[in-house]
Design a protein that fits this description.
Pfam families: Beta-prop_KIB1-4, F-box. With about 425 residues, the chain is mostly beta strands. The protein is about 10% helix and about 40% strand.
């Protein structure tokens, strides 16, 4: 069997004779041994996993086998899925970035049993998503397989302490995959954090964070009493010393660089706070826009670094821009901007943004009383794509935010 055309050489325009066709070896997936079949199927998009069981008995046995999950774990990366947030739904709606389509998944059994507890996603990492209810209980699940784990309750719980960040991070030690959940709580400047380790299935002791002062760039005077203005979900301009909506209450991300884990969150006055979990310290970044400016802001993680997305209005137009903080210069620098022809549509509509990063992409939910839209930004090409609406029963569904994760059937809770 000739393979030249598959590897980039120019295919021959010469028509083959019947004699040549007879010499071509026919090929069937049934001819593959089990190990080879599993390796081939592991490269298929994850969305096909739900259809493997209905092809034939052999493929169903593949989908259920531990060796198939091992083969899937060898795939370097998967195109991200975006789990949409809507606490009114009793199932999951996902945007598949590989297939450019919407997927509807049943809630995992454990979450279905707790539908009255109002569990909402609050963090994600790798192939897992962390849910939390109003009582502060956590459930970690794999949305693809439906496997779940109830996290032990916090003991003691950080009562009367504001939780600013809930982040999740995957770790690998001695070829064993595990994950951790980190809570950052307290009142500036008295912050602490607490870590749950899946490998031990317990919460560790609280760790206090001390303020880091960098005389060259990071030393700023923080005053959360300043009235900085944001846009509410109802489209009203309100002071920021308030409780955010559930979908934006814990706008936070985590990065790992040079062996140091750093959690970032938005303070109530719109300042980016960086908590170095390795060093036990925190610092505050300079404001992006002046106080009393009318804008919406969110923090994301892309390619292992923190970025900030800002929607603002100026000179009778709206702009949506992505910023990176330059540690050496101590200032923010723009790295991407939505074309004005697109962003101008949001002017005067009091639009709020909720964003999530995944590799080179940023998924942006834009909501106001007048419109809702979903934009996928590619940072490499500065391409901004308006995604199709998700329809249920003939009506478009509005989502306030999303969480990104890699759809991996081998991810274990």
């Amino acid at each position: 069997m000739e393979l030249d055309a598959c590897y980039g050489s120019k295919p021959s325009r010469k028509r083959k004779s019947p004699e040549e066709n007879e010499n071509v070896t026919s090929f069937s997936m049934d001819d593959l041994n089990q190990d080879l079949l599993e390796r081939v199927l592991s490269w298929l998009p994850t969305s096909t996993y739900f259809r493997l069981s209905s092809v034939c008995k052999r493929w169903k046995s593949v989908a259920d086998s531990a060796s198939f999950k091992l083969a899937c774990s060898q795939i370097p990366s998967r195109d991200p899925w975006f789990l949409m947030v809507d606490h009114h739904l009793n199932h999951s709606i996902i945007f598949d970035s590989a297939e450019k389509s919407w997927i509807e998944l049943n809630y995992p059994p454990l979450l279905q049993q707790n539908t009255s507890c109002d569990y909402m996603p609050v963090a994600a990492s790798g192939g897992l998503v962390c849910f939390r209810n109003v009582s502060g209980n956590f459930i970690v699940c794999n949305p693809v397989t439906g496997s779940c784990r109830e996290i032990p309750p916090l003991d003691p719980a950080p009562e009367n302490e504001s939780i600013h960040a809930i982040v999740m991070n995957n770790t690998c030690s001695n070829h064993q995959q595990s994950y951790k959940i980190v809570l950052v709580f307290g009142e500036l400047p008295k912050l602490s954090f607490k870590v749950y380790e899946s490998s031990t299935n317990r919460w560790e002791e609280d760790v206090s964070l001390s303020r880091k002062v960098d005389e060259e760039s990071m030393e700023i005077e923080s005053n959360d009493d300043d009235a900085v203005y944001f846009l509410s979900k109802a489209g009203n301009v309100v002071a920021t010393n308030m409780q955010r909506s559930p979908s934006k209450q814990y706008s936070s991300v985590i990065t790992c660089k040079d062996g140091e884990e750093i959690a970032y969150f938005l303070s109530s006055s719109g300042i980016i706070v960086a908590c170095n979990l390795t060093r036990g310290s925190f610092s505050e970044y300079p404001r992006l826009l002046p106080a009393f400016s009318e804008y919406s802001i969110d923090v994301v993680e892309c390619r292992g670094e923190i970025l900030v997305v800002v929607l603002s209005e100026f000179l009778e137009s709206a702009s949506l821009r992505v910023w990176r903080f330059d540690q050496e210069k101590g200032s923010w620098h723009q790295i991407a901007a939505m074309p004005p022809a697109i962003s101008h549509e949001f002017y005067g509509k009091k639009v709020d943004i909720n964003c999530v990063g995944a590799g080179d992409q940023i998924f942006i939910c834009l909501n106001s009383a007048e419109l809702f839209s979903y934009i996928l930004c590619d940072l490499d090409t500065n391409e901004w794509v308006d995604l199709p609406k998700c329809s249920m029963n003939g009506e478009a569904v509005e989502f306030m935010s999303a969480f990104s994760f890699e759809p991996r059937i081998e991810a274990s809770v």
